[in-house]
């Protein structure tokens, strides 16, 4: 058995996967595409994998959704989105070839269409957008279309680089086929922007982007074809290349705004000793909302709770610097803690996962109110010398008058996802080696404290077939 393969996070049947692409829901059925190499567990020969789900938790793999059209010089189908319109679904994606069609200076935007939601044809009108649209404006690494409906037609944003800065560029269309360039939607400070996408909340909008590091967002207002009056510049997830990248979003038939993100495999490092036939997973789908402060609230879709199995519940646990054992042994679980801020203000709190009996292996989730940080400390997560052990750290949300901190942790074989007050999120990978690295423990950094409530659910495996 592959001890590192997740049990309830989405993975491809085998071989490589990266960015989630073009999620949508139609007639109650959720669809998900993803970047996929169907022949090797490494990046290359990028297709779109395809899966469906009734609930965003259990998935059925379908045949590959889209393959490169080698006969037309295409060698990769990079990321993109889907549009449901008049009963037909249109997939937008970045088409990459070789030579003049390279990713840096020769990308094109193509479409594919389907009515049976299983097969997709690329019409002869491709490409629907080329770099020539921009005139003298020089844009590099132009990719990852995201399309939405407006009162006067359609809008698309694409990521890329202009004048050595990452940007989102915006386009409009009346028919999803003929597009015109409207300008720079927003120019960032990072060197690249990938996978831009947005949600609208009345007159507010939130723009997500992946800057070759932790996924970020900007909440502001759309005026004409620009994002203005930015209220908050936040982080979607602090994992970045160590745990969460290339997010994309959609609105389901219940009006929920849902975000998917890719959990990379780079933390395996070099010379990983086990020959695994898969690479990459997806984070739990997250429901997103906008707070009055301009910050995002993010929490796993409630459907995840259907996987909860045996429950262990504890109240008012006294803890000190010596680890307190929960008595639970699991490598696939959800853990929910409620802690009074005042109780741990001076002491801090560490929750150890994947802890071995001998103490040599443990992954530590550390709450530190003095420094306003939440950290996943991986320094003792594995005895393997070359897996990544750098920490993943984020800033704690503001107290906003609440005394309790809600800390929610999902562990799944080699994945750790952490949510603090449904606002600060951290995701990463760990690779414990010892057979009994499955303990859950609590301790303070100094002094004594009380944890108001601790619940642990063993998680059943999702049906991913």
TrEMBL record:
Keyword line: Glycosidase, Hydrolase
One GO term in the molecular function aspect is:
hydrolase activity
Query: What's one Pfam family the UniProt record gives for this protein?
Result: Glyco_hydro_32N
* E.C. numbers: 3.2.1.26
Instruction: Tell me where in this chain the Glycosyl hydrolase family 32 N-terminal domain is found.
Output: 9-297
Looking at its record, which EC class is this enzyme?
hydrolase
Record-linked InterPro entries: ConA-like_dom_sf (IPR013320), GH32_Enzymes (IPR051214), Glyco_hydro_32 (IPR001362), Glyco_hydro_32_C (IPR013189), Glyco_hydro_32_N (IPR013148), Glyco_hydro_beta-prop_sf (IPR023296)
Describe the location of the Glycosyl hydrolase family 32 C-terminal domain by residue ranges: 303-458
Origin superkingdom: Bacteria
Against PANTHER family, the record matches this protein to: BETA-FRUCTOSIDASE (PTHR43101:SF1)
Give the family, as the similarity comment puts it.
Answer: Belongs to the glycosyl hydrolase 32 family.
What protein name does the entry list?
Answer: beta-fructofuranosidase
